[in-house]
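Course assignment 3, question 2. Fill in each field.
Student: A.L.
Task: Predict the tertiary structure for the chain below.
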Amino acid sequence: MKNTQTGTLGALETSTEKGWQKTDTMWMLGLYGTAIGAGVLFLPINAGVGGLLPLIIMAILAFPLTFFAHRALTRFVLSGKNPSGDITEVVEEHFGTGAGNVITLLYFFAIYPILLMYSVAITNTVESLIVNQLGWVAPPRVLLSLMLIMGMMTIVRFGEQMIVKAMSVLVYPFVAVLMLMACYLIPHWHGAALQTMEVNQSSGNGLWMTLWLAIPVMVFSFNHSPIISSFAVAKREEYGEEAEKKCSRILAYSHLLMVVTVMFFVFSCVLSLSPDDLHAAKAQNITILSYLANHFHVPVIAWLGPIIAIVAITKSFLGHYLGAREGFNGLVNKALRSQGKSVAPNTLNRLTSLFMLLTTWLVATLDPNILSMIETLGGPIIAVILFLMPMYAIQKVPAMRKYSGKISNVFVVLIGLIAISAIFFSLVR
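Answer field:
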């Protein structure tokens, strides 16, 4: 384990601390890249359709909701004794082999379906771009999906640092276009959105019901739990004992960037459309950019939509790959260990890459409808791992006890329970 050996930390940084590094910026943007995917193109519709007042409250909650939960999960990973131990090892260390196996299995099946969804999404998006914007004949789906997934897997082959670097580079054009779109819409802002300051009671959804159902939308729009374990391990190797404070600072900057850019885009979209427009967009089940292109008759927005979506999906695919690989490797290692066997990490990573390539290619080619349902069912698992497991560990694990007694812990537990209950309500409604 490498230590900075540059003195002690006071608050977040002192004059003797190793200052902000290039790797810190890379990880800050990598966290952003994992969280902010193609889902942001649906967020203005899903979050804004309930009214302007719930949206304002959600904007206020966005930073604490995102920061406290991901900081707690990072601290959980850092609490393990093994400096290079990922989340699957830390779970086993703290909760025992049986619970470790169960949570590792749940962790994998919460993230892996999202990876499959992104493989389908990028194939559909590129195919649509080729046919509708370029006016060409799309290649056979089996070849197109293979080329796209192999392109993303090529980045994976160069290792974790290359994945994070690629994601951090892709963030720049994504944020730039998002902000340009938000600014472009400013002249189109009007007072129609103010009609929704009072939530439409005739819909049967009051303010609290609207907020309750909107919390999961916010949680998963800013969720980057799949990359947190890799982030924590990398920073502990770089900063040693000072990793927790450094991680908290990086998370704070990343979440601030997320909330400011995404919520500005969301508000700009909502303020430029009427409540009826938002309901129409939701009924059509299209991205906000596609609806804006049709609404304002601006062809350039129609072009920007798929391009932003491709960049967003690629970023999120790479970030979720790290989490899915961690879960798969954890399952294989635990299965082999129970039989007294082991496998070299590099060999296991190659086998995992092959498994991911073949399965994502197969699913992207078949384009099944069941994926969205699997992703929805994975939602409660992610909420348990992100919100509830670290809070439970604070009460039960000696290494985490120093974080107890904070009001933020109560907030995280409440948000987790609200998200889980709202997801189940949406499923059975």
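Instructor remarks: Confidence is low (pLDDT under 50) at residues 1-16, 199-204. DSSP finds 15 helices and no strands in the chain.
Grade: pending
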